[in-house]
Design a protein that fits this description.
It is built from 4 helices and 9 strands, in the order αββββαββαββαβ. The protein is an alpha+beta fold and 161 residues long. It has a single domain, classed as Pnp Oxidase, Chain A (Roll).
Length: 161
């Protein structure tokens, strides 16, 4: 991510009917995606229930050092789903300028940098929340982003693993 070698953006794999023009690609810059990851207030996480059905839920979260962090109660559907299957997608709240992360989450312990980012954004600290709280980190394997108005030329993918 920033400060690190970041993969070159590529055209996402999309059906021909989406009119993504490979010859005229004008990829969105990484700064576009990172700004939305940092500034969004709500994020949608999509996990899979043990029986294979999808589960989507809004969460608060922070983007810190190339990873997305969010918390939930360990007895929530989200936490139970992720304990069984850590595969997840995360979407910022905009449908006009979306950023979508895909990968696998891991449960992590709260550190000061993440807690400070959370407090700066939401005016409350995770460390002040009554237990139990589960904190998850997603280091995305793939990131997609575009501007709706210029989707045919701005659709961008970064493949990280």
């Amino acid at each position: 991510m920033p400060g690190k070698r970041f993969p070159k953006p590529i055209r996402p794999d999309m059906p021909a009917g989406y009119s993504v023009n490979a010859a005229k690609m004008n990829f969105v810059p990484w700064s576009f995606a990172e700004q939305r990851l940092k500034k969004s207030h709500n994020y949608w996480i999509c996990s899979t229930r043990p029986d294979g059905r999808p589960h989507s839920a809004p969460v608060w979260g922070v983007w810190v050092d190339g990873a997305f962090y969010f918390s939930t109660d360990p007895t929530s559907h989200k936490a139970k789903n992720l304990a069984k299957n850590p595969a997840i997608s995360v979407h910022v709240d905009s449908g006009d300028e979306p950023v979508i992360l895909e990968g696998r989450v891991e449960a992590v312990k709260l550190d000061k940098k993440v807690d400070a980012a959370y407090h700066g954004k939401y005016k409350m600290s995770l460390s002040d929340m009554p237990p139990p709280v589960s904190l998850f980190r997603l280091r995305p394997a793939k990131i997609l982003a575009w501007r709706e108005k210029t989707f045919g030329t701005s659709a961008t993918k970064w493949k990280l693993s």
